[in-house]
Amino acid sequence: MKEKKEAKIWYLAALHVVAAGIVIPMLASIVFAIVAVVSSPFLITLTGIDVLAPAVVGYEIVLGVVILAAVFFGARYSIYNMRKYYLVTNLEAVIRFSVIMLVVLASVSFLFDIFFPDPEYVLTSTQAAIEIGQTIILIVVFYLASKMELDKK
Question: Average pLDDT for residues 141-147, to the nearest whole number?
Fold first, then answer.
């Protein structure tokens, strides 16, 4: 059996955020988008409905659920692997630090959207409120999933 490596709390937290908060949800989103694009002609043929607006809203809702599930399972998987490969002395501190990192990244991303807007996508106050709500829910799911794995020991 390989010996576990020692690592600093910030390093483990960064690994956790990158794996569970960015990479795994991004991969799940890509897979979902590919499945949606490939299956859409078949669904239009089966249902006979070629209305774009309900499909886009439904796609966004399902994509949000897919991303939340990816964050949930990604956080649990990340903590599991962290325990497997690293000598973790204070996992609670790692989780706290990773949540702080995720909040900072989300805040910087949101501020970037405000100060450097995309001219083709105007961010209204309603969209901003929805984006903030989604981010808060995502961070809570990230924290709770990480905490569940912590309590599992």
Answer: 95
**Secondary structure of residue 134 in the 3-state scheme:** helix
Report in angstroms the alpha-carbon separations of 28 from 23, 31, 66, 71. 9, 5, 7, 9
Distance, in Å, from the CA atom of 92 to the CA atom of 144, rounded to the nearest integer, reads: 12
Question: Are the C-beta atoms of 146 and 20 separated by less than 8 Å?
Answer: yes
Instruction: Return the structure tokens found at 49.
Output: 């409905």
Half-sphere exposure for 83 (CA within 13 Å, toward CB) = 15
Which pTM does this prediction carry? 0.84
Cα Rg, the chain, nearest whole Å: 19
Q: Where are the beta strands (DSSP E) in the chain?
A: 5-6, 86-87
Show Cβ contacts of residue 102 under 8 Å, excluding neighbours closer than 6 positions: 17, 21, 139, 142
